[in-house]
Amino acid sequence: MNSQTKLRLAPLTALVIGAMVAGGIFSIPQNIAASAAPAATLMAWLITGLGMLALAFVFVNLSLRQPHLDSGVYAYARAMFGPFMGFGSAWGYWFMGVLGNVGYYVLLFSTLGHYVPGFGDGNTPLAVACASTLVWCLHFVLLRGVREAAFVNQVATVAKLAPLGVFVLLTALAFRADVFTLDFWGRGNAALGGTLEQVRGVMLVTVWVFVGVEGASVYSARAERRADVGLATLLGFAFTLALLVAISVLSLGVMTQPELAALKNPSTAYVLERVAGRWGAALISAGLLVSLAGSLLSWLMLASETLYMAARDGTAPRWLAHENAHGTPAHALWLTSACAQIFLVITLLSDSTYLALVQLGTAMVLLPYAWAALYGLRLAWRGEGYGLAESGARRRDGAIALAAVMYAAWLVYAGGLKYLLLSSLLYTPGALLYAWARREHGRALFSRQEWALAAALLAADAAALAGLHEGWLAI
Q1: Distance (Å, rounded) from C-alpha 298 to C-alpha 240?
Q2: What's the number of CA atoms in the CB half-sphere (13 Å) around residue 363?
Q3: Mean per-residue pLDDT for 58-70?
């Protein structure tokens, strides 16, 4: 890895913010209002904020205590559970990046569909053809080098924050307490269910908009200074949390929950149109296009880097470890772009919506997050990476990691059985790639423990296929 690929604090922070501040933030008012009243929304943000803060601190602590472990979620799962689970974590994270990218393409062209009817809801033949062109344009931008792509991402990150800042300012001025407190608990809308059910219903949405908080740790091997990894993580998280809460809460003071729930996406455009007129919707639409362009690049980088690091460590096939002359993991990038292209074509056949892709993508990242939190807890428990005089730091870090583990367990519960079973179908191809890599290195396909895990995965696949066939499980 040459010096031309080294990243400083600003591009690392932009990677974190760019990955989180994506298309989801422009749709957050409708996505949350579809499942929750104001009271449950505040509770969901409190749980998500504390949980993701704990997880962010886990990533910061792991980058400091285990500086030899690069590539974030993959490396931590491998250190905790061994190579099979490590590659499974890398594969799940990578697949989340692919699905997220496809979801963003659908959202991008559904936004343009307001102006060009041929784009429809983002999954028409014209929309898929244009999205495919954009996939390969971004692909070749990234082939030119990681630092160059990171600079483009910095510019896009700054540009997309401007319309969101205008949104927060104008909705704050238009905020009405009587609108916000109207049916505060959602008791006038039986379809929402109880408060706990409402909170659970929005958890996957709130988690999705924070996916990317680990972006700096994924690129820790390319950081110019190791300390910048943790600082970039915390700066990116704090900024994004404040922005997300402001947008979702202020929207509930401009339009009621039923009104927000009935909006099309990007819902922020319609909220700002209510406040400022048609120019407000146009501003948000323009901001969304810039935001998605930058986020698509961020996630293309993060997904490719994860597979590359797994291949470099010998748990993925060797060909995925190839770097081109510009320091880009070229083969991993080709696989990522090709799979995004395949799933774009699938949207033509399945009528996949942005929200469906987001929820499945979130399910793919839940286990990698859980393994990282468990590894942080183990380090604090055993004192690995701590000095003899750091007992206080161990207790503090252990408490934070325990909170992150509990939060990850809650997320698995909130996601429900449906997404766990569907995600098992996507994890299975990863097991085949892992077996390929084992053969390349002259090792047995699986250890005894890994055979048990592979059998459990196949059992989950059988249940998922049966559910899809019988109709009680659907994408």
Answers
A1: 16
A2: 22
A3: 82
